[in-house]
Structure formats: C-alpha cells, structure tokens
Amino acid sequence: MSKPATPVESLTQEEAAAELARLADEIAGHDRRYHAEDAPTVSDAEYDALKLRNAQIEARFPELIRDDSPSRRVGAAPSATFAQVRHSRPMLSLDNVFSDEDVVDFVTSVRRFLSLSADAELVFTAEPKIDGLSMSLRYEQRRLVTAATRGDGTTGENVTANIRTIGEIPQQLPKDAPDIVEVRGEVYMRRDDFLDLQKRMAETGQTFANPRNSAAGSLRQKNPEVTKSRPLKFFAYAWGETSEPLGTTQYDVVRRFADWGFRVNDQMVRCKSTEELLRHYREIEAERAELPYDIDGVVYKVDRLDLQERLGFRSRSPRWATAHKFPAEKATTVLTAIDIQVGRTGALTPVARLEPVTVGGVVVVNATLHNEDYIKGIGNKGEPIREGRDIRIGDTVIVQRAGDVIPQILDILPEKRPRDSVPYVFPDRCPACDSHAVREEGEAVRRCTGGLICPAQAVERIRHFVSRNAFDIEGLGEKQIEFFFNTDKEALKISTPADIFTLKRRQESLPATLEASLEKLEKIDGFGAVSVKKLFDAIDARRKVDLSRFLFALGIRHIGETNAKRLARHFLSFDKLRTVAEAAKPPEGKGDPGNAEWQEIVGVNGIGGIVAEALVDFFAEEHNREAVEALLAAGVTPQDEEPVADVSSPVAGKTVVFTGSLEKMSRDEAKAMAERLGAKVAGSVSKKTDLVVAGPGAGSKLKQATELGIEVIDEDQWFERVGKPG
Questions:
Q1: Of the given ranges (51-60, 392-401, 425-434), which has the lowest mean pLDDT?
Q2: Are 336 and 314 in contact (CB under 8 A)?
Q3: Mean pLDDT score across all residues of the chain
Q4: Coil, strand or helix: which one is 128?
C-alpha cells in the first residue's frame, strides 16, 4: 500500500512545496472544468478539502504560497461573444468559510490586522448570499450607461442592452446620486419563475440545471428580446467607482441604494459579535427553503467603510468580508462505473458514473472519487473513512453537493451491496497512452509517466494554452482541439501551441488538387467557410497577447495567473524577463545568494525561491526555448506591460523593505499601503532596495541597509513621505 498523505504538521519544506504544486495543478484543473467547460468532475466536499489542505500548508509555510492557489483566483475570463468592459475597480470574489470555528478565525483575523482589542466595538453586516450572476451597473450623470459581468475580475462582458430589459433595475437615479456611481449586485431568478420557464423551454428541448444557470444563460443572450422574455431580477449590495463618498458604513450605503429604487435584501442586519453573526446565519439557514430565491450561504462584511479601506484586499478577495457556506445536500443513487481521467499534468483522477439523481434541484450523473485511497476507504492522514468501507461498482451510494456545486460520494449503503461485487483495482497504466502510472511516496495521486507522448496531456496542454485566462481563442474548444490533434493530415495538424498560428498558412499553401482539397478545413464536417473564417480571425486576433497571459499560457510549473501578473508587472517585457531568467544562477549552497539576476527574480514581491527556480529551469531546457521560439516565429508577440502604479506617489516604482516593530500599523497593513502607492515591497535588503522603513528592534536588515548606503527612515517619516496621517 502506498504511503498516505503526510499530515500538514509533519511536512518538511520540500514536501510542502511539492504538495502545494500538486494541489495547485489539481484545483486549477477542477476550476477550469467547472468555470470554463461546465463539466465538473469532483465533488464540492472533496474540492473544499483540497482548498483547505492548500490553505493549511500555506499557513504553515507562508514563504511557499503559490500564485495559482484557489484562494487567488477570480471567476473566469470574459467570453468573446460580448464586447469587453474593463472594471474601474476590480470585482473580486469572496473567501469561503464552512464552520463556526472558521467564522471565529475570520473575526479574530480582522481584529488582529486592525490591532483591535477583544472588547473594542467591531460591527459586521450579515446578509444572504444570493446564487446568481454578479453584475456591475455604471451610472454617469445618473443615467445607466454600462452593465458588465464580473468576468475575470478585471474585465467583464458588456451586457448593457440585456440589462436594460430588467424592469426593476433603474435606468436613471435620483438627483442626490453622485455624477458617477457603479452599483454592484446579483442578477438572479426566483425559483417559481425558474420552474415556469423550464416548463415553457421543455417544449423546445432546452433546459437549465438551476435558477442560477438560467439567469446566467438568459443574460448572455445575443438578442435582448430573449432576455426581456425571461423573469430576471436584481439585488444591489455593493459598489465600484464613485465620484463622491456614498456613506460611512456598508449598511447605510445599501439602504441608500433602496432609496434610489434598487431592490435590496431585507434580511441584511448588523451584528456586533461573532455570536450574533452565527445566530443570524442559523436563522437564515432555517428559513432557506421558504425563501423564493436560491442562496448558498451568508455573507459577513465589516460595516465601517474606513475599516474596509484599512483592511484592503488579498490577490483575489477582500480581507473585510467572507462567505459562510451552507452544508451540502444529499441523495442516494447507484454507482454504475468508475472512469479514469488523465489531467494536464498526468494525474489519474477516478470519476464515479451514477444513475441520474436530483440533489438540491440539480441532476447529478457523476462525482469525483478523488484518488485510489479514497476509493479504498483511507483518508488523507491514513485514517479510515466511511468506517473503512471501500467503494465498488454497483454500490448504492450517498451523494452530496458541498456548497451546492460539485457532487461527491459521501458513503455507501453496505446492506445494498451486490453479492458478486469485487473491490475496485486502480490501474497502474495510463488509459490514454498505456505508459506506467506511478505514485510517488507521500503523494495521494498516481501520475502517467508518458509525458510528451501521452495524448491526454498533450491535448490538455493545448487546452490550457487557449483557455480563457490564457490566449482565450474562441472556436478552439475541447472537440476542435481533439480533432486537430488526432488528425493525420499535416495541413490540419495541431500538436503544439505554435501549430495553432501556422494553421492558416498551411491551409492557404495547399495545392489546387483533388487530394489536397480533402485537407481543406472548410470541407470537414462541423466547420464550413464561415466558421473557418471566424476561427482564423480569432487566432489572428491573439497574435498580440498580454504578457501575463503569454506567461500563464506557457504552463510553467508554479506560475499561475497571479504570479504571471507579478512577473509581467515587474519585467514589463518578455525579452527582459527571458534575458534575466536565462542568466539567473540559483544559490549553489548555504550562504550563496545566487547571482544578480537570480536576486532580481526572487526580489519580485510574492515570488519566492520555488517559483523563481521553476522559471529558471523552464528557460534552461532547450525544448522549452524551442517551443517559445516557435511561437514567436509563428507571429505571436507578447505585448509589453504598462507600468501599474500611482505615479503621483513619492514611492511609486521604488523597492521598500519594512523591518523591526511597527507601532501605528501592522506589518501586513504597511505592505498593503506601500503596494497601493505603487511601491514594490521586498522581504530582504539588496542593492536594488531604495528605502528601508525601520521600527524598534530592527536588526540585520537595518545593518545591511546601512552598509549598502540605502536610505533608512522610521515609521513617522514614512507617513510624512507618503502624505498620509500617522
């Protein structure tokens, strides 16, 4: 038997880094299948367990925090079907909590960040978490001018024409509204309206899984008249850019929205303690079935807006808010088969195929089984789960939808197990390429060793490359990629990312012969002249691509969206990044800091040694350099990044190090302030450091700064420098 997953408290740093890499890859795959492909393969509880283990490891090893962690992702890239709208302020998602203890931890973390004592007043709002589609409504001179979806948090889809068809959304605000205001909230559909719509749509052969999907699908119609025929509604609860302050508290601003004519949730209350938050949560949970709309939890927010400002944001979520999710719903059904899916990194993931069953209003036909240990009845720490009962084909199983999204198998009913059932034998060969599938010591996942020859991994690499958050090439979906990859016709073949950008040239260079005409794309079933032109136009439109998207698309280990953006913002051009990465020399032993290029990479805020090593290793491999050169030769041009900084700030563009004890703000608050002002915050002093802010007890960093002749100031001088009150 393979060794079970090592408890978090027993992990070495090297094991933790490997585990975070595995979790990042696995969770990213699950996110893609859910957000981009609408084809989830894991249960919510298992998905949440992955995220929880990731968070626990990060808490113990903060220096290893990854950028593609699930806690740092926001939504999915906007569809090319609609014009894009760049949000003036990002639309971030919320962190989730699942237990009373998690809520206590959230409140404690807020107090700690703000340096508030346990008896200092701290008020929160609590309101139902509507299960709908996030929307930002921009008003200028009190008239609705733009409506945009969340998208990837930075850029959304312009659905203004469709939003104008929703009667309860004001087209014009009253005179007391600011000249510019973005009202944000949730487009949703009541359950009774959803059921009526399902009856009407069943006659046309169309259905939606639940009210949330129905609302999202209705809003994304190309024809606004279709949207107008759908019973959509809107709850307002947040805001983006405003030309003047809207109020001093979250509660008062939302009440102001109500005065303007927006529908707001009448179950929103103020709470002055953790006990009050939990009491309101249980009240809403008890009333959940009676509500006319779907909710999946309760959202807690710090009420005072000045405290929200101080708390600020993480990479994907505010520190001042969280969503307390409801427990899963359950049902029983029969497991008819176990399929093995091979992921982009070669991970073999077992998926249960089920007799269709409705759980929480959604028809469930598959569920994740996570890994071979889970099937055997063994937990992450080697402990028995389900009282040691294994899972077999033919079992009657209890299905759960944790967080009301992705299903999992919670347990089996042993009394209904068929007499002729046999234990499931997990394959030791890859079902895609027949290479050996091995399980490394300390890992719960078995992986294919086929590497580049494995078609499952090759296809997944191309899928990742064209995915919404990477190159976002419309028309290259799963079926199209598999067709281009599996064809034996050279003029149609796509086996590497660079082949995408040579496809049009190869097609145009075909000779005018009958044999060659068989390789013409427009002659292939499912394409045609119009769709081929659209595909080529979509490819051509991506020959120029944002630097961060280009880096993310390369699939470099440990470099997800967040780290790609960090690197892009620092190096600004691909040539600069590649030059530094190819010249970088990591430390060769204890006491060796590595060369200047290495120090520059690890000096990028948020980029540690593990990420830096992955980047350097990528460019050290000849086949990786060849793949990059092939892309550039095919006409792909990564666009230089525009510096993102408050250029008016006296510390914009400077590298700042905080050391010693800070008395007027916490270390986290100091770093967040510096970054908002356009500075780069580093964890160590080097020749590239511009400024050191030293508090009482500053030690080696202060000494090193003095030796290097770097400017050193205290906390009061920092506030003077940046023009903020101390």
A1: 51-60
A2: no
A3: 86
A4: strand
β-strand pairing of 124-130 with 295-302: antiparallel
Q: Please state the rounded mean pLDDT for residues 637-651.
A: 76
Token pair of 325, please? 């999710």
Q: Which has the closest alpha carbon to 332: 395, 391, 269, 266?
A: 395
Residue 77's Cβ-count burial label (10 Å; 0-12, 13-18, 19+) is buried
Give 213's pLDDT tier (boundaries 50, 70, 90): confident
Active-site residues, by number, are 129
pLDDT tens-place string over residues 646-656 = 567 888 888 89
Q: Domain 84-315: what homologous superfamily? A: DNA ligase/mRNA capping enzyme (3.30.470.30)
pLDDT at 646: 55
Question: Please, are residues 399 and 408 in contact by the beta-carbon 8 Å criterion?
Answer: yes
Sign for the CA dihedral angle at 452, 457, 459, 461 comes to negative
CB 421 within 8 A of CB 392: yes
463-485: burial string, b at 16+ Cβ within 10 Å, e else: bbbbbbbbbbbbbbeeebbeebb
Evaluated on CA atoms 418, 422, 426, 431, the torsion sign reads: negative
- Do 456 and 424 meet the contact criterion of CB atoms below 8 Å apart? no
> In the structure encoding, which two tokens stand for residue 13, read together?
């740093």
Element (H, E) at 310: helix 305-311
Confidence of residue 142 (pLDDT cuts 50, 70, 90): very high
Q: Write out the DSSP string of 166-227.
A: -TTS-SB--TTS-SEEEEEEEEE--HHHHHHHHHHHHTTT---SSHHHHHHHHHT-SSHHHH
Mean pLDDT of 352-356: 89
Pick the CATH number of 545-639 from 3.50.50.60, 1.10.150.20, 3.30.70.270, 1.10.3470.10: 1.10.150.20
- Domain at 655-722: CATH architecture: 3-Layer(aba) Sandwich (3.40)
Residue 206 phi/psi, 5-degree rounding, is -105, 140
Q: Which residues pair with 447 in a beta bridge?
A: 347, 438
The pLDDT, as a whole number, for residue 296 is 84
Say if residue 37's pLDDT is above 50. no
Mean pLDDT calculated for residue range 558-572:
88
pLDDT at position 39 over 50: no
Contacts of 611 by beta carbon, 8 Å cutoff, 6+ apart: 66, 67, 558, 559, 563
Task: Report domain extents, the chain.
Answer: 84-315, 473-541, 545-639, 655-722
Residue 610: strand, helix, or coil: helix
Q: What average pLDDT does this structure show over 190-205?
A: 81
Q: How many helices (H) and strands (E) does the chain have?
A: 25, 24
43, 400 contact by CB (below 8 A) = yes
Residues 226 and 204: beta-carbon distance below 8 Å? no
Residue 403, pLDDT above cutoff 70: no
Q: To which residue do tokens 């209904």 refer?
A: 416
Q: How far apart are CA 708 and CA 686, in angstroms?
A: 8
